[in-house]
Request: fold
Amino acid sequence: AQSVTQLGSHVSVSEGALVLLRCNYSSSVPPYLFWYVQYPNQGLQLLLKYTSAATLVKGINGFEAEFKKSETSFHLTKPSAHMSDAAEYFCAVSGPGAAGNKLTFGGGTRVLVKP
Amino acid sequence: EPEVTQTPSHQVTQMGQEVILRCVPISNHLYFYWYRQILGQKVEFLVSFYNNEISEKSEIFDDQFSVERPDGSNFTLKIRSTKLEDSAMYFCASSEGVGTSGGKQYFGPGTRLTVT
Reply:
């Protein structure tokens, strides 16, 4: 079975500061890993995904994440926070080749950006 | 960019009533999914659907739940007899395929179901 743990349900950062959101996963097979963002009253939007190619993955809106197999981690970072980054962020895992490709989500981290 | 749409945005129903949540996936997508998020909890997988049949379902997806693609464009989730604990945000998603090239799932904005 696969699982995802996101450390910190809430993170507060100052505008211009580094954003670091932590995600650790558990998977018995090489995983596919994803970060999704949810803005208020909207659906989940894919930020980036790791599918066994480069371990450093660049996504939209200046976000990137690094897959570290030894640490079973896939932390999300952005060098400089913008007010528009205030949202909830979800890490998710799926297994390769699964017929339905279901996503298993972490609990989410809500980001507050202070001016 | 194409979007997944869901209706209604908010549904209030009484316990024991049937509800149908509707989704219009992206037109060339072949895989369809329902997820739910109970307030304050994780987003949970309910069911995936491909080639007009369920490909995988979670233990949450019991006999009270069913899915259907009635007309080639809509994808529906039916809850036959709602319980208070079915109150949640329900997300529909679709993907072109699975795996590295086609596995990106596009999510709709969700339907908030409130069971009273």
